[in-house]
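Why predict the complex rather than its parts? Because the way molecules touch one another can change local conformation, and only a joint prediction can capture that. The input here totals 293 residues.
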Amino acid sequence: MTEKQQVCVYTYWVTEVWEGSNMVSRSSELMSVSCSSGGGTSGGGGTGDPIATPIKVELKPDSLKKKFPCAAQILESLESYPQLSDFLAPFIKIGADSVKANLSWFDDPKLDWNSVGSTTYGETRSDPKQRVGSEIYLNSNMLKNSSPALISTVMVHEMIHAYFNNITTMQGYDVVADDSKPILERLSEYAKVSASLNGRDHLTILASYVGTIAEVVGLSDGNKKSKEVYFKLAIGSLNNDGKTPSNTFASTYKDLLDKINKDNKFSITIDNASQMISLNRSVPKSERAKCLL
Ligand SMILES: [Zn+2]
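Output of the joint prediction:
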């Protein structure tokens, strides 16, 4: 038996100013709050409690929202889809009074943006100051140059990393939904065939979340492109298991990709998925989010 109690996910945009390696200022702005109504655990196969409409928050002129208003709009649109709320549901399951899953969003001009070498589109770090919070960094160059479809793909990708970062902590506070237990099992299964936590997360995403990412990104992008294109964007950034991949990573990755292709009659390969990311990385001005022009 559980008492009815409201638990909320707080989403922040955060702006940092750096001079060399020194951070000279940092401001955060509450962007939206999504609350569950509480009401006990759901039955088998349930998808959790309904989520209230995010609260609109007044903008401050010096905020990231001013620098990247389109990115803020994309994130708000993503948060409004029930497909995404369903996967975030364990974040907001009722639990101890003080348990809040804060996702703080940053733009980061220092993340790698190399055309030939490595590029880091986004990065998620556990927030050491919070028990179940994460900080999500989005590459400023991506926000300026990439297609809205790639930006939203990276946003959802990083939200899933944040979810995985925190799910074991949340389990300790008894705030993980019963129906998310298979996720914990899959995470430990894929940890055995991966060299890094990144690889573990990426195989779990490939096994369970690629369809959700593609669907939500397609909706927020007005489904201007084909379903296969949105799948390619979702898959193109998952072939990463740290600097030295585990021996079993590639074969597990291939099996999961084969299944996606068979189930959907797609012909996605690691190469054509990576090419799709490259195509969306620096697009002509007319194809970028209009308010970034
Ligand atoms: Zn990742």
